[in-house]
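haha ok so turns out i had the wrong file open the whole time. this is the CORRECT one, sorry everyone. sequence first:
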Amino acid sequence: MFEVIGVLIVIVSLTVLFLAPDSLSQLFDTIIKEVKPVVVDTFLTSEVGIAVIVSVIVGRILERFGFTDGLIRLFVPIMRWFKINPSVIIPSAYNILGDINAAGKIAGPILVKAKATKAEQKIAVATMIQSPQSFATFVLGLIALTIFGINAFPLILLSIFAPLIVVPFILSKTIYRDTKKVTLDELPRFTPKTTLLKTIFSSAKEGTELLLLVIIPAVTVVFILIGILKFAGIWDSIEASMASILTLISIEPGTGIVSFLVAPTLAVAQLADVAATIDPRLIVGSFVLANSGLPIYVIVGQIPAIWAESTDLREKEVITAALIGMIIRIATACILAYVLTPFLVT
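then structure:
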């Protein structure tokens, strides 16, 4: 089959070269013009790339001093009150400072060991989507909020910490009811035993790898696709449709599209550069949306593969739970943008 596709590609390429020899060069020029400003100007030669590395270092230092363990031990008792297996909160709590892929690899086996039901494992996935998939997104988002004079404390409390309680409760009473009250015999420990100096240097390496080996390649691939769509003349209509929907639900359209399709880290970095006259509701909505499990290819690709491997769930079940979590996150962004914003602007 692939041989046939390969032959067709060769024929089409030769035909295009014969009939329109300049079209391929124009296509590559369009793609490069899409990719270069983001990869080079934003991530490699501006403060954004450094902010990604610094945020990882700060996050790992906080983890080294017990932040993640403290967070888990605060939220675990609340799950017992709700008669939900306390292990469901572990991936979300870890994800706030960690990485969404690592959260699945580490927390998935813990859920299985704690005898969490399939419903509780789905609650864990949906709740994890409420947390920022990178600490860099959270840090850059704080910078944007400060620029627009938006009080960050209540927003962080309601958009990042409150969902860790509210989402499991709502889902356990509606969609995923097969939950049970259990007591974890022994809570896992997430505070590394490495020395502080080693933590700093290893986290600097991790931050650099995150920037160069994860964020930039992912951004490059997506903007290549956008360049192809733009060359084909259909991207503008797609972008306009998405922008209309996002504006309607109080999310700044430009950065909202970037959060969905490219990288929330880039979105919050761009958020600081939008016009100062923009409605603060759009800034709040964009911040809440970006601090989630997006972009969409992580939700439907990476997360299902990791969780299906480390839990009792099938990939389809993981995708469904993740999308439910994403719908809740979009609703949260809309509600907080409309209701909370008047009390946040200083």
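The mean pLDDT is 85.
again sry for the mixup
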